[in-house]
Amino acid sequence: MFTTFPGPTPRSSESGPNSASPNGSQPPRPRQKRSQVARACDYCRVHRIKCDNNHPCLNCQTRGGQCSNDRTNGVRTLPHAFREIERLKQRNQELQKELEEERSRNRNQAVTPARPSSSQLPTPPNISSISNSSITSPPSSSPSEALSSRRYWEGIYTNTARSASKTWYGPSSLLYFISRLHDFLASSLQQHLPESSLHPNSASRILDGPTSPPDKQSDGPDRLPADDSIKAKEYLTATQEEYFLDLYWQSHHTSLLVLDEDDFRRHYKSLWIGSRKKRKPSALVDIVLALCMQYGMARGRGNNNSALGNANVDTDDATLAGRWHYCRCQNLLACEMESPTISTLQCNILSVVWLCCASFQNMADSTLAITARTAQMLGLHLPPPQGMPQREREMRKRLWWSIYVAESKTSMKLGRPFMLHVSHVTCGLPADDHEAAAQSGSGFAPLDDDVTWLSWNLYNTKLVLAARDVYTAFYDKYPDFVENDGNQAIYDAPQAMEMYAGFLVARMRALEQWAKDVPNALKTQRKNNGIPFSTDLSPVEVEQFAPLWVQRQRLLLELLYHNLCTNLYRPFISFKRSPYSVVSSHPSSLAESCARRCASHAMALTHIMRQILSTTDILTGWQEAFQWEWNVSMTLIGFVLSHPHDELTQAARVAINVSADALGIFANSFSIAASAAGLVRDLSQKADRIIMPQPIYEGDRLITQGGQPITMVPQDEQTGTVMDQTGVESFIFDEDTIAVMQGILADSMDLAFAVDGYSSTNVLWPNMEPME
């Protein structure tokens, strides 16, 4: 009935004299601890038997059945799940980085020379992109020898901002283009031009000084007149501050998305708590005020049509308005450099804009480097944290890409290496949908079903990225088509230029595609069935009842497009051929076609600028627009001098006059624009005395269609020309013509430095006396 289980029988081997039990029985062994498993297999769980961590478990292995513990069902606890998610995210970032590096290598391989000659190695504009695979050198040569044998694009060392020290400007800069024009004319005239033509006519000054305002009772030479209520006081009252701050939201805010309007207004309101006469110090408020004063003063003068042709740049120029607020901002920022915040970054970005508008290009470039590193300190180049609110995540993206765009534009403008690279960035582009616009802190109405006020920033970023890709590929490819002669420049190799032109034309399709992708809501329509972003020179049709910020966004987008295209095509304005040659350029030449495209984009920008400035106030006081106009003006002058008999020369000559008119309108706002307008008019008139339309030979004389002879002294009875060492056909002119050309060169170079680097950085501290 009942089953009896016998007890354990002691084994003989375990019994002995040392047994602890008096009756000789063995004590029970301690129970072995059960092995813990996170999850039993299906078979063991159903039969409620012990499972283990083996795969398969011991029970299933013994019975020969299938075990559910086949490693596909891993641990499913919440901590393990979080760890797995983080691991997958990290792996995803690593794969994306590898993909970007692979794409970068493919682009570098696309421009790698077919021949392994060390003199033909491609040289990227930034040394960081040089890899071992891209350097082909003999086994015996050292890395330093390989680098020294690489060919680089030429640049120019020059002193700007009234400084004795020289700084370098690269091949894409306007200063280098003017230096090429200078060298060509000097060679053509067979006359040594004085070195002083490359220097501003001013004394050298120190670059540091006090940052606090001078005593109001000071009777120094830079004391401001008391009738100017803004300039006579170093800082503003609450009423004046409110006036200038209101300008920001309709001007810089819609073209530089770095501030949240709601957050800024709350911050500004908090500064007045506890005092009605004096607000608490704030670097962010000071730099915003400096920008608003700079723009507001220029805009007010432009609307009043106040001529500033004889104004003193150091004390009376609107671009220097707000300099005391800028200085105070820098003092406050010095305390935040060790522990930067988002506000610190915003101040640095706006400081770059103020310096750029004031034409302190080198200071802006240096501040931009600090800004880029600060952004990386804050991790803006990485995707925003997942737990951060969407509003803050989008702001971080807009901040990062604003810095990236500013750094790209500045580097391409000055011809210097890039500091930021896409391969190091994993942060996506900011959103421009209606949800992002609603959370942006500003209440601007949408422009279309899929277009908001944020869309301009997105397409502006895409434009600069596309232009930067073309720029990088173009200037990386320098040595590919140049002959083995180490002294030969790319501009002296017509066949190389022709091959280079085909390469650039293929790359420029990316910018053409960008122009097609821009939504109609961001385009300025044209009259007479004209096409936006084209070079057909059709008049623009400004939407009458659109807000001012919408009209400005549309115009800035198209003007930037034409300016970038002008700069990218400008290397093909070659001065190798004498501009006085009676043989016109070959119509099928790709290099000449690129030069014409450069002139076409420059003419398009000029005609749009003059129409807008003369009929509206959309761009009145906008300093960046003035810099674009100055850039294309000198480009058109270079095209006319190098292509006197081209099919576009007459239209380009007309555009120079249009450009002078546009600069003259800018002169109502900026003192430097008055000098620019006068120079362009003088250049056009003096160039007409030298370059005559369609010259005709009559015996030993070269006359124009109007019957006026060009004064020339023939060097040779048969040819009347000489050949310089570079093979450029040159003429010997009389003393009057040489004097005219020397005046052109001296004036153009002086003003070029004045525009790209203002008279002195000491205008920030006008009470400092110049050092002898």
Provide an overview of this structure.
- This protein has 772 residues and is an all-alpha fold.
- A hairpin with an 8-residue loop joins β1 (156-158) and β2 (167-169).
- Among the domains are: 37-72, CD2-Gal4, CATH 4.10.240; 156-205 and 696-746, no CATH class; 226-454, no CATH class.
- The model is unreliable at 10-22, 110-141, 194-233, 578-585, 693-733 and 757-772 (pLDDT under 50).
- The protein has 24 helices and 8 strands.
- The radius of gyration is 35 Å and the shape is globular.
- It starts with 41 loop residues before the first helix and ends in a 16-residue tail after the last helix.
- The chain has a two-stranded antiparallel sheet. It has a two-stranded antiparallel sheet with strand order 3-4.
Give a concise summary.
With 772 residues, the chain is mainly alpha-helical.
Itemize the secondary structure elements and their pairings.
Layout lengths: L41 H6 L10 H6 L14 H33 L32 H6 L7 E3 L8 E3 L4 H16 L48 H13 L1 H4 L5 H10 L12 H22 L8 H4 L6 H11 L8 H16 L3 H17 L12 H25 L19 H5 L16 H22 L17 H14 L1 H9 L7 E2 L13 E2 L6 H22 L20 H26 L7 H20 L6 H18 L4 H20 L5 E3 L2 E3 L18 E2 L5 E2 L4 H22 L16
Antiparallel strand pairs: 1-2, 3-4, 5-6, 7-8
Helix pairs in contact: 5-21, 5-24, 6-9, 9-11, 9-12, 12-13, 12-14, 13-14, 14-16, 16-19, 17-20, 19-20, 19-21, 20-21, 20-22, 21-22, 21-23, 22-23, 23-24
